[in-house]
Amino acid sequence: MVDLGALRRRDALRVLAACMVDWWLPRRLQAQGPRRSTRPDRRVIVVTFGGGARYEDTLAPEGWINIPHLAREIVPQGLVYPVARYEGLTGHFNSTGALVTGCRQDVDAYGSEAPLTPTIFELFRKEYALPPEEAWVIATNKSFGLMGGSKLRAYGDPFSANVVLPKQLLIETIKAAVSTDGGPGVEDRQVLAARMMSALDEGYEGFGWKVFESGRGLGAELKSTLAKSLLDYFNDPTVPTSGDELTFFITKEIMNRLAPSLLVVNFWDIDIAHYGAYSLYLEAIKRTDRLVHELWQHVQALPQYRDRTTLLVVPELGRDSDVAGNGFANHRSGDDSCRRVWLVAVGAGVPRGTGTERPIRTADVAPTVAGILGFKMPECEGRPLAELVF
Amino acid sequence: MQFDAGLTGDAAALARGHAAVLTRLPATVHAFILVELHKWGTLFSAEQRYQRALLDHLTDLPQPELVRATAAIARIEAEAGCDRIARGNPARFQDEAQALLRKRRLLPAWRTAIDELFAMLDPALNARLYPPDAPRRLVVQLYAGDIAVQPDQLWGRFKGAGIRIPLDLAAAPSPDAFRRALFGAHADGAITLLDPSAGSENATPLDRWIIESHQALHDLSGEAGIRGGASPEARGTGGGVIGLSYERLRDYRDQLTRALYRKIETGVDSPQAFAAYARSLTIAPAADALLHADDIVRTFIREVLLTGNGTLFVNNTFVEWAAVQALRRAQPRILVTRYGVRDKLKPFSSLLLFSQPRASDQIPLIEDPVGSFIDVEQLSYYVWLNAEKSAAYRRKTLYLFLAEGIDQMLAVRPDVDRQPAEAPSAATLADVNATIAAWLGVPVRESVGRPIPTIIS
Known about the structure:
Chain A is an alpha/beta fold. Chain A has a domain of about 260 residues: Alkaline Phosphatase, subunit A (3-Layer(aba) Sandwich), CATH 3.40.720.10. Chain A contains 10 helices and 9 strands. In chain A, strands 1, 2, 3, 4, 5, 6, 7, 8 and 9 form a 9-stranded mixed β-sheet that branches. The longest helix of chain A is centred in the C-terminal third of the chain and has 24 residues. Chain A is globular. Chain B folds into 3 domains: about 120 residues, no CATH class; about 280 residues, Alkaline Phosphatase, subunit A, CATH 3.40.720; about 35 residues, no CATH class. In chain B, strands 4-3-5-1-6-7-2-8 form an 8-stranded mixed β-sheet, sandwiched between helices. Chain B is an alpha/beta fold. Chains A and B meet through α1, α6 and α9 of A and α11, α12, α14 and α15 of B.
């Protein structure tokens, strides 16, 4: 039995990590297939500047103040498409589903259904016969458990991406740590657990969200390692303050340890706009801008990624306009403001310091990824971004 | 099979009187109207008037015109197979029809058709409900003195709309004095603006609303009621104004939050199921949390807290969302909002008090006066935008924006688009109060101010 109340914080974290290993190990073990040498030399990271960000608050001139890193450092190195559009249902799952499939999706908005058409992860892994560690979704949005693969019989679990939801990972770890029996301190642990759950389990869009189990489970050892890293990170004085920082941290861990060819990183804290506090929404935009920049710096620091990685940054959807829609707090009106987004590409195969007013669609992301990584994309609504070199 | 709405009283009589037209409507529209009528007892009088006007207008429409207006909806319903859904309970029919439309990928088309129907109906309904000679209205939006106001950025969202009027605050050196002068507190405690007995004989508490993050205006209003001789019971049940205070509703918010979390802990199938559970909660705010407590207001507050994102957690979001809903539903003649400083959100790392997880170790709440200014600039703008979307307020309303301790205000009269030729001279808060009284036609006693000509002329 562990009395957390009697422990110092650092000690408590060590105990938690130990509990966590016990928690994970009995869970299903995943066979990790042998890595083939056929994986392409290029790498792609797609970052959703996510949670719903309006053009006027980001890439429009009046929004540059909120995205200083993108505006001053990333865009000058890459290519910007200021006019991108998303045409589907304006919820997070379907809009992100369009990004990873190239097709409009119309499934349950809260993540109980997988995409209807094949994802880039399945297509990539199937064509190259790659192990699961080559394709990842790291998501702050807890409803993204099924984002890694479609519901198609010929694809699905055997070829889908690893999906990791860092906040949920931490929750499960904490649950394990506090699941001891009664005794001194147990009341405090329950209070702690309740507070942790309520803090980490929030959905900005309202209560009642459910976490749907990813089609593919992570390997137990890998999951344990990642969760331990997460807790160690909490022990750092510069602790994270948001779900997106956890997502960024886990993304770096995965890049460092596995160097996968394809990652989709879902930042989502911008959706705090649903709380109706404009300043918090702007803060989240600024934080996402910083994290994108730090991610790009991390790419430059890793030999496995430097000079061979293409980074695509795109909001999966916007938010309602003040006048025609329901304002920044929502993204369900379907007005132009919640469909108008943008895309920034930087890195390998991307012309430097350019931009094009050519309108594109967020559905173009998937075939563009296919072009860069060299796998076949079935007929879809999107078209590869011709300005990039494949 | 017919709908069985279970209506009683006035709602049943209204439905009976318009039974013929109801049966000619597409089923989803028919069900929608019955669901609204079922809520009759918790509808504001403005909403009841709207339902009457809607049914009267639909009845008056020539049959071919009604068929033409609803043809797109009927076609989509047929394509979806809505006729195979059992009628019976209209609310259940509505839920099942929505699910079916969603499943058949017809929901966007159906929504468009509904929007088109009401776009066709609304001008006639507005003409019936809001004639040009309807009484003038007033919306006052006030920022608390502890918000970190940036005077050079104040009301920046309005981009040139309205008139900026300098204020002479010599007689109002404190936030409390500011509020008393603005709302016309007299020596005997009477406050003209917040007193429903002033002005129209037909005025009711539902005509005057105060919605605030804290409770300064409630204190002012309550003080006036006490000095004016009203008993707490009278103030609690009939007199005064409608008052919604995020702070005063703290216990109620806590009860709701606990109930919701208990439900989450026991498992929730979907957000829709969770919303249904929230609707079923019968928790009510205590009477002493409200200036005027009746079932309509209690139901309104519960809906504001359960359907407005963030209204349970962020005080100014509560103010904005409640104000927008009040404008849309209750349509008060006077609405006063007062925004305050919200607390900073705790970083979730602050909850990891592993070493000493005791209540005394919890990180204290920290206020965010700077962020609050950014928030309220947007939120007060949204209240104005939403008011102007309503025919009840458009071209009939004076909007005043003030910040305690700040020597300027913004006055917006959308029915007057000309800017004054000369910069207005400084006004006192007594002048602002006299301006409000003159605008509303409310008699003012002991007034030491004069109406501001730039606004009233």
